[in-house]
Amino acid sequence: MTSLPLIRSAEVAAAQASGKAVVALESTIITHGMPWPQNFEVARQVEDDIRAGGATPATIAVLDGTLCIGLEPEQLETLAQARGVAKLSRADLAACMATGGTGATTVAATMIAAHLAAIEVFATGGIGGVHRGAEDSFDISADLMELAQTPVSVIAAGAKAILDVDKTLEVLETQGVPVIAVGQDSFPAFWSAGSALRAPLRLDTAEEIAKAHHMRGLLGLPGGQLVANPIPADDEIPSSELAPVIARAQADARAHDIRGKAVTPYLLQRIYELTEGRSLTANIALVRNNARLAAQIARALCTLRA
Ligand code: PSU
Ligand code: MN
């Protein structure tokens, strides 16, 4: 093996050959973020939302050692049902590929793959961040450092309240990552549209967000942008309702000594159980909302680049 094992789906290859907008999607949200069968239904729905928005979806994963940029429907279904799939971040991508393994890509690994495949816009639900209690655990997601070094704009619904959102914003500021709230001043809090925290930046249109991304490139700045898109009002869960649920999930994680990579998937699953599925309904709505905005940004970027 002398070259990088990377393949594009036929749909992605055709889109890029004709200069069409492409939006990257991660796969950890499928394997570790949502239960079967909703994970598969949502993955397909989000791809369709991007197509309806005039762009081409590229769901990214490692299958048998190959970095796949865009998955065929059968591949997506197999991955969504598989058990024990690795969760790949910057640190484990190469070893997984070198050993012919299969793994789902987190925000960090998806950014790396998207950049290799010349994709500049990526939609997801929420990014990893600084966990509560990080002053003891040192648990800070590699997603934050990836945003500082890989030039991909990530469209997410802000940071979840399972994280220490203040500290997450501080690290992003230190790392020089633009954090842009879309159409509002406050930083979106994933399941809730707003929060008590003001976002560092605000832009109101896909065109402005695309221009800001382009301008960073012209300035020669490394890294991407975090585009924080609030969940639609009809789908939000008030933070007052979630606060006790999150506290309970966190106490359970401590009681079971959950650590490292397992923390985020554990908390998401526990919150899903404790809200009797409501957290998932909101999660689905916000991911789809992010996919629609990402398609607009990718198209605006294509127009700028033309
Ligand atoms: N946030 C979600 N759902 C997810 C994740 C985050 O709402 O599935 C996943 C993403 O793939 C993100 C990863 O990159 O969790 C962060 O994991 P960690 O905190 O271990 O870095
Ligand atoms: Mn972590």
Residues in helix, %? 40-55%
Number of domains: 1
CATH superfamily: Indigoidine synthase domain
Query: Gyration radius, to the nearest Å?
Result: 18 Å
SSE arrangement, N to C: EHEHHEEHEHEHEHHEHEEHEHHH
Number of strands: 11
The secondary-structure class comes to alpha/beta
List the ligand species: pseudouridine-5'-monophosphate, manganese (II) ion
Mean pLDDT metric: 96
CATH class: Alpha Beta
- The rounded distance between the terminal residues' Cα atoms is 36 Å
By CATH, the topology is Indigoidine synthase fold
Q: What does the main sheet amount to?
A: 11 strands, mixed
Please name the defining characteristics of this protein.
eleven-stranded mixed β-sheet, pseudouridylate synthase activity, binds pseudouridine-5'-monophosphate, Indigoidine synthase fold, 11 strands, binds manganese (II) ion, metal-binding, alpha/beta, Indigdn_synthA-like, PsuG, 47% helix, 306 residues
